[in-house]
């Protein structure tokens, strides 16, 4: 009756008279006379007014006395924490292997980074195979670029400090956003990307070789191509900071902000929808059908522009990054997700008819 704020206050003050547990960092308890399910749904969908952060579904636990689900809920939560620890350890092992590889080599820095990147990817693949889950690799896409950027910045001699700051801000903002979104939606080792499951069912005994080359090494090489522009931008480019740097900064941060807003709206939509067949067609999703892919393209183009500005021209082969990303998204990723959404959501063809794919009003 007193609203969410009053209920939150009772979480802190009266934990002894309860049968419903509400988890938000620490565990608090709601009194048994509260209509708990409705309250938790409201708190889950509320942001700002009460100061409660929005929670994923796995962070809400209804634990009534005699409930058959209480122990299972907490077992899932404990397993998720263990899975996160396994992920962190696997990525630390990959980072260590990459570092050893670079220290043992005496070649051009780009070649060293390429070899180290491949070695780290093979370590992650071994973790995927041991865990029987190729989604172990999913975070690599957003974790690798900051590491590569920091290494190139470390090698710099006469590079512009201001440009380095601009580039690192864009790279880390993008990486934190993407890694955070992955962590928010990740369901642990019990869940694998639906695309991988479909490929595994089709490939049969060839699945693990396909996983190594198609799911692990191929995206690693694409990200490496996208990061080629970081070498002139952070290490060897000596041109003074100019208008192209500011354009790249604005594009990179704007693209990241677009992706963040698209993620936020998607999570809110999933929390309030009553059926998985519903279509999100409001907010930035009313501008285009794939705002996240539009943001990804903008990010990789911004890195290319930074490299161009630093080198005072196009650094050799750095153009391959944005071109490869555009080809991946337009030729593989978007058609695959559009096919699935069209099959799962009856209203999706109408959404396709009235909303452009990537660029509002144009394409």
Write up this protein.
The protein has helices spanning 3-13, 36-45, 70-104, 109-131, 140-155, 161-185, 194-203, 207-227, 230-236, 243-272, 291-311, 320-344, 348-354; strands at residues 18-24, 26-31, 60-61. It has 363 residues and is mainly alpha-helical. Strands 2-1-3 form a 3-stranded antiparallel sheet. Helix 5 (140-155) runs parallel beside helix 8, helix 5 (140-155) packs parallel to helix 9 and helix 11 runs antiparallel to helix 12. It is globular and about 55 Å long. The N and C termini lie far apart (49 Å). Mean pLDDT is 84; it is low at 14-70.
Task: Tell me the number of helical segments per DSSP (H or I, 4 or more residues long).
Answer: 13
Order of helices and strands: HEEHEHHHHHHHHHHH
In percent, how much strand structure appears in the residues? under 5%
Tell me the structural class.
mainly alpha
Straight-line N-to-C gap: 49 Å
Q: How are the strands of the biggest sheet laid out side by side?
A: 2-1-3
Largest sheet: 3 strands, antiparallel
Question: In terms of per-residue confidence, which ranges show pLDDT below 50 for 5 or more consecutive residues?
Answer: 14-70
Query: If you average the pLDDT, what whole number results?
Result: 84
- Spatial shape: globular
Q: What's the number of extended β-strand segments? A: 3
Helix content, binned percent: 55-70%
Rg value: 23 Å
